[in-house]
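Sample 1 of the test manifest.
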Amino acid sequence: MTSTVPSHERHPQLPKPEVKRLFQELRTRDDPEIRATLIESHLGLVEYLARRFAGRGEPLDDLIQVATIGLVKAVDRFDPGREVEFSTYATPTIVGELKRHFRDKGWAVRVPRRLQELNLRLGGVISQLSQDLQRSPTVAEIALASEASQEEVLEALDSAHAYSLISLDAAATEEGLSYHEQIGSEDEALEALEDRISVGPLLRQLPPRERHMLHLRFFKGMTQSEIAQELGISQMHVSRLLAKTLATLRSDLQGEEQKER
Amino acid sequence: MTIRIPATTRHVALVRATATTLAALLDFTYDRLTDLHIAIDEVCSRILATSSPRASRLEVTFTLQEGGMKIDARGDSPIKSGEEFLTTWSKAILDSVTEHMHVGVRDGVSVATFRIPRG
Protein backbone atom coordinates (compact mmCIF):
# COMPACT_ATOMS: atom_id res chain seq x y z
CA MET A 1 0.00 0.00 0.00
CA THR A 2 1.25 3.48 -0.81
CA SER A 3 1.95 5.57 2.26
CA THR A 4 0.32 8.96 2.70
CA VAL A 5 3.52 10.35 4.18
CA PRO A 6 5.19 12.58 1.57
CA SER A 7 7.92 10.73 -0.25
CA HIS A 8 10.57 13.32 0.59
CA GLU A 9 9.96 12.69 4.30
CA ARG A 10 10.20 8.93 3.93
CA HIS A 11 13.23 9.06 1.65
CA PRO A 12 15.34 12.07 2.56
CA GLN A 13 17.51 13.19 -0.33
CA LEU A 14 21.24 13.33 0.26
CA PRO A 15 23.07 16.57 -0.58
CA LYS A 16 24.52 16.58 -4.10
CA PRO A 17 28.20 16.50 -3.05
CA GLU A 18 27.45 13.53 -0.81
CA VAL A 19 25.72 11.70 -3.70
CA LYS A 20 28.74 12.31 -5.89
CA ARG A 21 31.14 11.15 -3.17
CA LEU A 22 29.14 7.95 -2.59
CA PHE A 23 29.11 7.16 -6.30
CA GLN A 24 32.87 7.63 -6.49
CA GLU A 25 33.26 5.33 -3.51
CA LEU A 26 30.86 2.78 -4.99
CA ARG A 27 32.88 2.67 -8.18
CA THR A 28 36.10 2.20 -6.23
CA ARG A 29 34.84 -0.55 -3.95
CA ASP A 30 31.65 -2.33 -4.86
CA ASP A 31 29.95 -1.86 -1.49
CA PRO A 32 26.30 -3.08 -1.42
CA GLU A 33 25.52 -0.79 1.50
CA ILE A 34 26.52 2.32 -0.42
CA ARG A 35 24.48 1.08 -3.38
CA ALA A 36 21.47 0.58 -1.11
CA THR A 37 21.91 4.06 0.40
CA LEU A 38 22.02 5.65 -3.05
CA ILE A 39 18.95 3.76 -4.17
CA GLU A 40 16.99 4.60 -1.04
CA SER A 41 17.87 8.26 -1.13
CA HIS A 42 16.40 8.55 -4.63
CA LEU A 43 13.12 6.77 -3.95
CA GLY A 44 11.47 10.19 -3.75
CA LEU A 45 12.37 10.77 -7.38
CA VAL A 46 11.00 7.32 -8.23
CA GLU A 47 7.69 8.07 -6.58
CA TYR A 48 7.44 11.48 -8.19
CA LEU A 49 7.99 10.06 -11.67
CA ALA A 50 5.68 7.08 -11.05
CA ARG A 51 2.89 9.46 -10.01
CA ARG A 52 3.14 11.21 -13.36
CA PHE A 53 1.96 7.96 -14.93
CA ALA A 54 -0.79 7.26 -12.38
CA GLY A 55 -4.47 7.21 -13.33
CA ARG A 56 -3.94 5.28 -16.54
CA GLY A 57 -5.16 1.91 -15.40
CA GLU A 58 -2.06 0.73 -13.57
CA PRO A 59 -1.89 0.68 -9.75
CA LEU A 60 0.54 3.26 -8.37
CA ASP A 61 2.33 0.61 -6.30
CA ASP A 62 3.10 -1.33 -9.49
CA LEU A 63 4.35 1.82 -11.17
CA ILE A 64 6.62 2.58 -8.23
CA GLN A 65 8.05 -0.94 -8.45
CA VAL A 66 8.67 -0.54 -12.17
CA ALA A 67 10.24 2.89 -11.66
CA THR A 68 12.47 1.47 -8.93
CA ILE A 69 13.87 -1.02 -11.44
CA GLY A 70 14.80 1.97 -13.61
CA LEU A 71 16.47 3.64 -10.63
CA VAL A 72 18.52 0.54 -9.83
CA LYS A 73 19.67 0.35 -13.46
CA ALA A 74 20.64 4.03 -13.34
CA VAL A 75 22.57 3.58 -10.08
CA ASP A 76 24.47 0.65 -11.58
CA ARG A 77 25.29 2.47 -14.82
CA PHE A 78 25.99 6.01 -13.63
CA ASP A 79 29.50 7.28 -14.20
CA PRO A 80 30.33 9.90 -11.52
CA GLY A 81 33.04 11.27 -13.81
CA ARG A 82 30.37 12.68 -16.15
CA GLU A 83 29.39 16.30 -15.78
CA VAL A 84 25.78 15.58 -15.03
CA GLU A 85 23.89 15.19 -11.77
CA PHE A 86 22.70 11.70 -10.99
CA SER A 87 19.03 12.77 -10.81
CA THR A 88 19.30 14.25 -14.32
CA TYR A 89 20.90 11.07 -15.57
CA ALA A 90 18.42 8.77 -13.82
CA THR A 91 15.19 10.51 -14.88
CA PRO A 92 15.16 9.31 -18.52
CA THR A 93 16.09 5.79 -17.45
CA ILE A 94 13.25 5.64 -14.92
CA VAL A 95 10.75 7.21 -17.31
CA GLY A 96 11.91 4.79 -20.01
CA GLU A 97 11.20 1.85 -17.72
CA LEU A 98 7.70 3.19 -16.97
CA LYS A 99 6.97 3.71 -20.64
CA ARG A 100 8.15 0.23 -21.50
CA HIS A 101 5.77 -1.09 -18.86
CA PHE A 102 2.85 0.77 -20.44
CA ARG A 103 3.84 -0.31 -23.91
CA ASP A 104 4.07 -3.96 -22.91
CA LYS A 105 0.92 -4.01 -20.81
CA GLY A 106 -1.09 -1.33 -22.55
CA TRP A 107 -1.12 -2.78 -26.04
CA ALA A 108 -2.95 -6.00 -25.22
CA VAL A 109 -5.51 -4.22 -23.06
CA ARG A 110 -6.30 -1.15 -25.12
CA VAL A 111 -6.05 -2.19 -28.76
CA PRO A 112 -8.52 -4.72 -30.20
CA ARG A 113 -6.92 -7.77 -31.78
CA ARG A 114 -8.18 -6.95 -35.29
CA LEU A 115 -6.41 -3.59 -35.11
CA GLN A 116 -3.24 -5.18 -33.79
CA GLU A 117 -3.28 -7.60 -36.71
CA LEU A 118 -4.04 -4.90 -39.24
CA ASN A 119 -1.32 -2.74 -37.73
CA LEU A 120 1.21 -5.52 -38.11
CA ARG A 121 0.10 -6.06 -41.70
CA LEU A 122 0.32 -2.36 -42.53
CA GLY A 123 4.08 -2.30 -41.95
CA GLY A 124 4.64 -4.61 -44.91
CA VAL A 125 1.96 -2.97 -47.03
CA ILE A 126 3.40 0.52 -46.59
CA SER A 127 6.94 -0.69 -47.35
CA GLN A 128 5.79 -2.49 -50.49
CA LEU A 129 3.74 0.47 -51.71
CA SER A 130 6.60 2.89 -51.05
CA GLN A 131 8.83 0.70 -53.15
CA ASP A 132 6.28 0.27 -55.94
CA LEU A 133 5.24 3.93 -56.05
CA GLN A 134 8.68 5.36 -55.31
CA ARG A 135 7.00 7.69 -52.80
CA SER A 136 5.12 7.51 -49.52
CA PRO A 137 1.59 6.07 -50.09
CA THR A 138 -1.65 7.84 -49.17
CA VAL A 139 -4.17 6.42 -46.70
CA ALA A 140 -6.51 5.53 -49.57
CA GLU A 141 -3.75 3.56 -51.29
CA ILE A 142 -2.83 1.78 -48.06
CA ALA A 143 -6.50 0.89 -47.47
CA LEU A 144 -6.87 -0.52 -50.98
CA ALA A 145 -3.73 -2.62 -50.73
CA SER A 146 -4.53 -3.94 -47.26
CA GLU A 147 -8.16 -4.69 -48.14
CA ALA A 148 -9.39 -2.58 -45.25
CA SER A 149 -11.46 0.58 -45.07
CA GLN A 150 -9.74 3.94 -44.71
CA GLU A 151 -11.30 4.27 -41.26
CA GLU A 152 -9.81 0.93 -40.20
CA VAL A 153 -6.40 1.95 -41.53
CA LEU A 154 -6.54 5.25 -39.65
CA GLU A 155 -7.62 3.45 -36.49
CA ALA A 156 -4.80 0.94 -36.82
CA LEU A 157 -2.22 3.65 -37.51
CA ASP A 158 -3.50 5.58 -34.53
CA SER A 159 -3.22 2.54 -32.29
CA ALA A 160 0.48 2.42 -33.07
CA HIS A 161 0.76 5.85 -31.51
CA ALA A 162 -1.01 4.92 -28.29
CA TYR A 163 2.39 4.62 -26.71
CA SER A 164 3.52 8.11 -27.63
CA LEU A 165 0.20 9.51 -26.43
CA ILE A 166 0.86 8.07 -23.02
CA SER A 167 4.28 9.67 -23.06
CA LEU A 168 2.89 13.03 -24.02
CA ASP A 169 0.20 12.66 -21.42
CA ALA A 170 2.77 12.09 -18.77
CA ALA A 171 4.70 15.16 -19.74
CA ALA A 172 2.56 17.97 -18.49
CA THR A 173 1.30 16.70 -15.15
CA GLU A 174 -2.22 17.74 -16.03
CA GLU A 175 -3.26 17.17 -12.46
CA GLY A 176 -1.65 20.56 -12.00
CA LEU A 177 0.73 19.47 -9.29
CA SER A 178 4.27 20.33 -10.13
CA TYR A 179 7.07 18.83 -8.16
CA HIS A 180 7.51 22.24 -6.53
CA GLU A 181 3.95 22.22 -5.29
CA GLN A 182 4.13 18.69 -4.04
CA ILE A 183 7.13 18.99 -1.83
CA GLY A 184 7.80 22.67 -1.29
CA SER A 185 10.51 24.80 -2.78
CA GLU A 186 12.90 24.50 0.13
CA ASP A 187 13.14 20.76 0.03
CA GLU A 188 16.50 19.22 -0.68
CA ALA A 189 15.00 16.67 -3.05
CA LEU A 190 13.91 19.53 -5.25
CA GLU A 191 17.37 20.97 -5.23
CA ALA A 192 18.60 17.72 -6.68
CA LEU A 193 16.23 18.10 -9.62
CA GLU A 194 16.76 21.72 -10.46
CA ASP A 195 19.74 21.37 -12.73
CA ARG A 196 19.08 23.13 -15.99
CA ILE A 197 19.62 20.56 -18.71
CA SER A 198 19.77 20.89 -22.44
CA VAL A 199 18.65 18.24 -24.85
CA GLY A 200 22.30 17.19 -25.30
CA PRO A 201 22.68 14.86 -22.32
CA LEU A 202 19.29 13.28 -23.07
CA LEU A 203 20.26 12.70 -26.69
CA ARG A 204 23.46 11.06 -25.61
CA GLN A 205 21.48 8.58 -23.56
CA LEU A 206 19.38 7.43 -26.50
CA PRO A 207 20.23 4.16 -28.20
CA PRO A 208 22.60 4.82 -31.16
CA ARG A 209 19.99 3.89 -33.78
CA GLU A 210 17.37 6.31 -32.39
CA ARG A 211 19.97 9.07 -32.15
CA HIS A 212 21.08 8.43 -35.71
CA MET A 213 17.46 8.49 -36.85
CA LEU A 214 16.82 11.89 -35.24
CA HIS A 215 19.94 13.24 -36.89
CA LEU A 216 18.89 11.96 -40.31
CA ARG A 217 15.33 13.27 -40.00
CA PHE A 218 15.78 16.64 -38.32
CA PHE A 219 19.29 17.70 -39.18
CA LYS A 220 19.89 16.08 -42.54
CA GLY A 221 16.28 16.53 -43.66
CA MET A 222 15.80 12.97 -44.89
CA THR A 223 12.24 11.66 -45.27
CA GLN A 224 11.03 8.65 -43.31
CA SER A 225 11.07 6.55 -46.45
CA GLU A 226 14.71 7.48 -47.08
CA ILE A 227 15.63 6.72 -43.47
CA ALA A 228 13.82 3.36 -43.68
CA GLN A 229 15.84 2.50 -46.75
CA GLU A 230 19.11 3.62 -45.21
CA LEU A 231 18.57 1.67 -41.98
CA GLY A 232 16.97 -1.35 -43.61
CA ILE A 233 13.79 -1.21 -41.54
CA SER A 234 10.17 -0.48 -42.46
CA GLN A 235 8.87 3.04 -42.86
CA MET A 236 6.25 2.32 -40.23
CA HIS A 237 8.93 1.27 -37.81
CA VAL A 238 10.79 4.51 -38.48
CA SER A 239 7.59 6.45 -37.85
CA ARG A 240 6.94 4.61 -34.60
CA LEU A 241 10.51 4.98 -33.36
CA LEU A 242 10.58 8.69 -34.20
CA ALA A 243 7.30 9.33 -32.41
CA LYS A 244 8.45 7.30 -29.42
CA THR A 245 11.85 8.97 -29.20
CA LEU A 246 10.42 12.48 -29.56
CA ALA A 247 7.80 11.76 -26.92
CA THR A 248 10.49 10.54 -24.54
CA LEU A 249 12.63 13.62 -25.11
CA ARG A 250 9.63 15.94 -24.85
CA SER A 251 8.53 14.35 -21.63
CA ASP A 252 11.98 14.58 -20.08
CA LEU A 253 12.64 18.14 -21.24
CA GLN A 254 9.27 19.40 -20.11
CA GLY A 255 9.67 17.62 -16.83
CA GLU A 256 12.82 19.64 -16.31
CA GLU A 257 11.16 22.90 -17.42
CA GLN A 258 8.24 22.42 -15.09
CA LYS A 259 10.51 21.82 -12.18
CA GLU A 260 12.06 25.19 -12.87
CA ARG A 261 8.77 27.12 -12.93
CA MET B 1 -12.73 24.12 -38.85
CA THR B 2 -11.92 24.98 -35.25
CA ILE B 3 -11.89 22.76 -32.19
CA ARG B 4 -11.66 23.96 -28.61
CA ILE B 5 -10.57 21.52 -25.96
CA PRO B 6 -9.46 21.59 -22.33
CA ALA B 7 -5.75 22.38 -22.27
CA THR B 8 -4.53 18.98 -21.14
CA THR B 9 -2.24 16.61 -22.95
CA ARG B 10 -4.94 13.94 -22.82
CA HIS B 11 -7.15 16.08 -25.04
CA VAL B 12 -4.37 16.71 -27.55
CA ALA B 13 -5.28 13.23 -28.80
CA LEU B 14 -8.52 14.77 -30.09
CA VAL B 15 -6.57 17.36 -32.06
CA ARG B 16 -4.48 14.65 -33.58
CA ALA B 17 -7.50 12.48 -34.43
CA THR B 18 -9.21 15.42 -36.12
CA ALA B 19 -6.07 16.29 -38.04
CA THR B 20 -5.68 12.66 -39.13
CA THR B 21 -9.21 12.48 -40.48
CA LEU B 22 -8.83 15.76 -42.38
CA ALA B 23 -5.44 14.71 -43.72
CA ALA B 24 -6.91 11.46 -45.04
CA LEU B 25 -9.61 13.45 -46.83
CA LEU B 26 -6.89 15.55 -48.43
CA ASP B 27 -5.01 12.43 -49.50
CA PHE B 28 -1.94 13.10 -47.38
CA THR B 29 0.85 10.59 -47.79
CA TYR B 30 1.81 8.42 -44.85
CA ASP B 31 5.06 10.38 -44.39
CA ARG B 32 3.18 13.67 -44.19
CA LEU B 33 0.56 12.22 -41.88
CA THR B 34 3.34 11.32 -39.46
CA ASP B 35 4.87 14.78 -39.84
CA LEU B 36 1.47 16.24 -39.00
CA HIS B 37 1.33 14.18 -35.80
CA ILE B 38 4.83 15.22 -34.81
CA ALA B 39 4.08 18.91 -35.42
CA ILE B 40 0.79 18.85 -33.50
CA ASP B 41 2.36 17.07 -30.55
CA GLU B 42 5.27 19.47 -30.48
CA VAL B 43 3.27 22.70 -30.84
CA CYS B 44 0.52 21.70 -28.40
CA SER B 45 3.00 20.53 -25.82
CA ARG B 46 4.95 23.79 -26.17
CA ILE B 47 1.73 25.77 -25.60
CA LEU B 48 0.95 23.71 -22.54
CA ALA B 49 4.49 23.97 -21.25
CA THR B 50 4.94 27.70 -21.74
CA SER B 51 1.53 29.25 -20.96
CA SER B 52 1.71 31.57 -18.03
CA PRO B 53 -0.62 31.40 -16.19
CA ARG B 54 -1.39 27.91 -17.34
CA ALA B 55 -3.85 27.79 -20.26
CA SER B 56 -7.24 26.28 -19.51
CA ARG B 57 -8.34 25.83 -23.12
CA LEU B 58 -6.59 25.01 -26.34
CA GLU B 59 -7.98 26.19 -29.67
CA VAL B 60 -6.84 24.67 -32.93
CA THR B 61 -8.03 25.80 -36.35
CA PHE B 62 -7.53 23.66 -39.43
CA THR B 63 -7.71 25.31 -42.83
CA LEU B 64 -7.78 22.97 -45.78
CA GLN B 65 -5.72 24.39 -48.62
CA GLU B 66 -4.70 23.36 -52.09
CA GLY B 67 -1.98 20.78 -51.56
CA GLY B 68 -1.90 20.85 -47.80
CA MET B 69 -3.32 21.99 -44.48
CA LYS B 70 -2.71 25.14 -42.43
CA ILE B 71 -2.98 24.86 -38.67
CA ASP B 72 -3.26 27.62 -36.06
CA ALA B 73 -2.92 26.60 -32.43
CA ARG B 74 -3.31 28.79 -29.36
CA GLY B 75 -3.98 28.59 -25.66
CA ASP B 76 -6.17 31.10 -23.79
CA SER B 77 -3.30 32.43 -21.76
CA PRO B 78 -0.26 34.41 -22.93
CA ILE B 79 2.80 32.40 -23.74
CA LYS B 80 6.32 33.64 -23.44
CA SER B 81 8.11 35.36 -26.32
CA GLY B 82 8.47 33.56 -29.63
CA GLU B 83 12.05 32.67 -28.90
CA GLU B 84 11.23 31.05 -25.61
CA PHE B 85 8.17 29.34 -27.01
CA LEU B 86 10.24 27.54 -29.60
CA THR B 87 13.35 26.09 -28.06
CA THR B 88 16.20 25.39 -30.45
CA TRP B 89 15.26 21.74 -30.30
CA SER B 90 11.55 22.37 -31.04
CA LYS B 91 12.52 24.69 -33.87
CA ALA B 92 14.75 22.05 -35.43
CA ILE B 93 11.90 19.55 -35.33
CA LEU B 94 9.22 21.91 -36.59
CA ASP B 95 11.39 23.34 -39.35
CA SER B 96 11.89 19.80 -40.60
CA VAL B 97 8.27 18.69 -40.60
CA THR B 98 6.36 21.90 -41.41
CA GLU B 99 6.31 24.78 -43.85
CA HIS B 100 5.97 28.43 -42.82
CA MET B 101 6.25 27.87 -39.08
CA HIS B 102 5.44 31.11 -37.32
CA VAL B 103 4.71 32.20 -33.76
CA GLY B 104 2.88 35.53 -33.54
CA VAL B 105 0.64 37.42 -31.13
CA ARG B 106 -3.10 37.80 -31.72
CA ASP B 107 -5.45 39.40 -29.17
CA GLY B 108 -2.67 39.30 -26.59
CA VAL B 109 -2.24 35.56 -26.97
CA SER B 110 0.49 33.91 -28.95
CA VAL B 111 -0.56 31.78 -31.89
CA ALA B 112 1.55 29.12 -33.52
CA THR B 113 0.86 28.73 -37.22
CA PHE B 114 2.25 26.18 -39.60
CA ARG B 115 1.45 24.39 -42.81
CA ILE B 116 1.96 20.76 -43.74
CA PRO B 117 2.02 19.87 -47.45
CA ARG B 118 -0.01 16.92 -48.65
CA GLY B 119 2.84 14.90 -50.08
